Records
---
Amino acid sequence: MAKYDNSFTDELRQRLSLVDVISRRVPLTKKGQNYWGCCPFHNEKTPSFSVSEEKGFYHCFGCGEHGDIISFVMKNENVDFKTAITELAEMAGLKLPEIKQKSKQQIENEQTYIDITEKASKIYEELLYSESGKHALEYIKNRGFSDEMIKKYRIGYAPKNNIISSTFKYVKKDKLLSTGLVRNGDYGLYDFFRDKLMFPIFNPHNQIVAFSGRSLDGSEPKYINTPDTDLFHKRQTIFGFNFARDAIHCQNRSIIVEGQIDAIQMQCHGFPETVAPLGTSLTEDHIAILCKSNRNITFCFDGDNAGQKAAMRACLLVLPFLRDNSEIKFAFVSGGKDPDEILKNSGEEEMRKIINKSTSLIDFLWNITNKNYLINTPGGRSQAEKFLQDCISKIKDKILQNEIINEYNSRKFNQWHKWKKQTYTPDIELPDVDSMTIKILKSIIQKYPELSEKYIDFLTSLHISFDEEVEPTDLDLKNADNFIISLQIQKSLQELNKQKQEILKKLNESLTQENSDKLKEINNKILEITKKQESLIDIQ
Ligand SMILES: [Zn+2]
C-alpha cells in the first residue's frame, strides 16, 4: 500500500476534527467527554458508537468497530486509503503531497536533529548557572521564576560565543545547519542564538524541535525563534502545548496569552491550560490544534488598542471553528499590565477574576461594532451592519449562524434604535393600541426580530416596550408580516377618520350658504379615500 509521509497524515488528523467528519454522516450528541451516536457499521437503535475527539478514535461497543479519522472514511464510504486521504485533504484545505515513503535517510536525519537539539538544550541549561549566564539567571529570577520552574521548562542561556558550532564540530555541516541553530558565515559556521535567554520549544511528543531566545540587552526584537525547519513550523506550533494538553482536557478549555513568559507563569499559578502563540500573531493552525480537544477558548489580551486589535484578529480566526457548544471568550488585562505582572503583584485570585469577567464572543463582536462605527447615523449603521454580516458569514454551522443573526437583530432593534424611541415625537397623535394587539405584537417581535427592523418607524410610533420576555407567536412569518401591515393600515384609517371629524366640526361651526357646496365636495373626497383604504384592508 502506498504510504504517505507520516507528517501529512498527522497534519490531517491535526487539522480536522474527528467529530466534525463523523457527524456529517452520523448524528452525534455529547455525553461526558465523548460523543455518541448510532453505529454506522451495524444496525442499532440505541447509540453504542462513541467518538473521542481527544484520542482521535471512534469505538463501537456493539460490534467492536474501531479506528481513526482515515479508517472511518475508508470503511464508511468503502474507499481505499488514497481516496480517503484525498477526500480528507480537500476538507482540510490541504494540498495532497507526492506519495512518498519516509526514507531510512529521513528517519535518520530526524533522529540526528532531535539528538542535536536535546544536547544543545542541556548545554544551554548548564550555562544558565555558570559565570557567563549570571545576568540571564538574574533576569529570569527577577521575572519570578523559581529553580524548579527553570528546570521544568528547561530554560537556559546561549552565550555570546559559538558554543554550538564548536561543540558539534563532529556533526556533518548540513545536518547541523538543518536544526537552525547555526548559520553559514564567511568564516565558517556561527551560532544563531547569542547572548539570549533560551526557551526550548517542544513538539507534542515532548521532543525539543526549536528554541525561542529572548534578548537580554534590551535590543529588539525581544524574541527570536529558530527559523522554520523540517521539524519546526512556527505557524503550527503553540508554546506550552505539550505541558498544557492534559489540563486543556481536564479543565475543558484553553487560555491563550500573548507571551511565553506569561504562559509559563499562568501554567505554574493555577492556569495549567494556558498556551501562547510563538511570536505575536495567532494563526488558524493554532486554533485548529486547540479546537481538537474542545472548542472552549479564552483569549487573554492587553486592554490597550493593540490588544483590542489582536482580539479582533483572533475573533475572525475562531469564527469558522464555532459550534453551538463552543465557549469562546475574551479577557482583557487593563492598565498596561500582562498576566505575568498580575500574578506577581496581585496573585492568582485577581487573575481568576479577570478570566471569569471575560466577554463572550457575541458580546465582544457587538461591543467592537458599536465602538468602531457611528451607529447613530444611517451610514454608520450601514457600515456596522456590513461588518457584522461579514463576520457572521464565517460561521460554518448554519443553524448557529441564524441564531446569531436573530440575536443581533434584536439588539439592533433595542439598542441602535433606542435613540429614536426616546426622541421620537409623533406628528399626529395615534389612537392607543389595545392590550391584546400589544401582546400579539410583542410575541411576533420576539420570534421575528427581522420584522422589527422592517417596521421600525411604525413600531416606535406605538410607544410599546419590546424588552419584556413573552411567549413567541404561533403565526408564521408571512402572517406575522401581514398582521403588522393591517395594523398599520387600520391605524392610518383611524387617524384619517379622526381628522375628518375635526374638519367637519370646524366646518359646521362656520357653516354658511356660500361654503356648503365646498363642504359637500370635501366630504365626498374623504369618503373616496376611506373606500380606498377599506379595500386595502380587504386585500390583506
Ligand atoms: Zn457497531
---
Amino acid sequence: MTTILIVDDEPSARETLLSMLEHESYSLETAKNGAEALEKAERLHPDLILLDVMMPHMDGFEVCRRIRSTPQLAEAPIVILTALDDRASLLRGIEAGADDFLTKPVDRAELRARVRTITRLNRYNTLMEQRENLRLMADRAVTAQEQERRRISRELHDDLGQALTSLMLEIRNLQESLPVPQAELPERLQALHRQAHEISVKVRELAQGMRPPLLEALGLKDAIQAYCAEFSRRTNIQVSFEADEIPASIPDTHALTLYRVLQEALTNVVKHAKADCVWVDLTLEGRILSLTVQDNGCGFDKEKIQPGSLGLRGLQERLVIAGGVFKISSSPVRGTVVMAQLSLPEEAPEAREAA
Ligand SMILES: Nc1ncnc2c1ncn2[C@@H]1O[C@H](COP(=O)(O)OP(=O)(O)OP(=O)(O)O)[C@@H](O)[C@H]1O
Ligand SMILES: [Mg+2]
C-alpha cells in the first residue's frame, strides 16, 4: 500500500487534496503543521510527502530540510506545493531538497499524474536501482579512464613520437654533413627550429585537451564568467551571471566538476531549450559551493530521457564521484534548472592559523 502524507495548515486545502487523491489505492494521511509532519513522517515512512510552503512556525522549506537531514527519511520523495511561482522560491525548494513542485491551485489531473509517477517505484525498487546505477557508474568511470589513456597514448605515440624521431634524424643528418657550407646553415637551422616549434604546439594542445585552458588561467569564477560571455556572443542567448567570491584554494577537481556542469547545461540550453535567457549563479554558503543554471525554455520530462543521452547522466556521475549533489527540475512553465552542489573540505590547520 502506498502511503501519502499531505501537509497543509489550512483544513480546506487538506480536504481538496484528499478528495483529489481518493479512489486511488493510496493510504492518505494528513498533518496540519511542520512538527506534526515530521512526527508522522518518522512514524509512517510515507512513499510521498505533499508539502505546503506557507505554514506558520515552521515553513515547508524548513520541514523539507529537516526531513532530508533525517537519515531514515532522506530518500522520501517530497513535492512542494506553492502559490509562489517565482524563481527565488523554486531555488529555495531545490536547495531544501524538494524533488518536484506543484503550483497552487493544484490541478487535479496534474496532481494525480505526478503522484502516480513518483510512487510507481516502491522503495525496494528505488534502492535496487540506486545500487545498480552505482555499479554501472563505477564500470563506466573505469572504461572512460581506459579510453582516455588509450587516446593519450595514441597521440603521444603517433604524433609526438614521430615528430621527435624526425627531429632527431634531421639533427643527425646535419651532424653527419658537417662541415656544412656556410650558405646552407641558416636554412637548415631554421627547419630544425620549425620542427621543434611544431612539437611544442602539439604538447600544448595535448595538455589543453586534458584541462580547460580558461579554468587553468582564470580560476573558477572568472572562467565561468568568460565562458558565459562567449556562449552569449555565440548564441545570442542572454546570460545573467552572479557569483560570490570563491577562494582560489578550492580543490581542482571541484572547479573542474562545476565547469563541466556549466558546459553541458549551456550546451543543452542551445540544443534543446528554445530559451532566450539563462541565469547562472555560483554561490558559496559556509562550505557549500553551488552552481545553478536556469533557463526560460520549454522544459522536458525526466521520465522520457532517451537511453542514448549521456550528458545529464555523466554529470550525475561526476557529482556522485565528487561526493556532491546533482539535481534537475524542469517544467514547461518555468524552464529547466540544473543544480550541482559540492562541499569544500575543512581548512587545513596551518591555513587557519595563518588566517
Ligand atoms: N535545458 C533543457 N531544456 C529542454 N530540454 C532539455 C534541457 N536539458 C536537457 N533536455 C532534455 O533532456 C534530454 C537529455 O539531456 P542529455 O544532456 O542527457 O542528453 P543530450 O543533450 O540529448 O545528448 P548528449 O549525450 O550529447 O548530452 C535531452 O535530449 C533533452 O530532451
Ligand atoms: Mg546534453
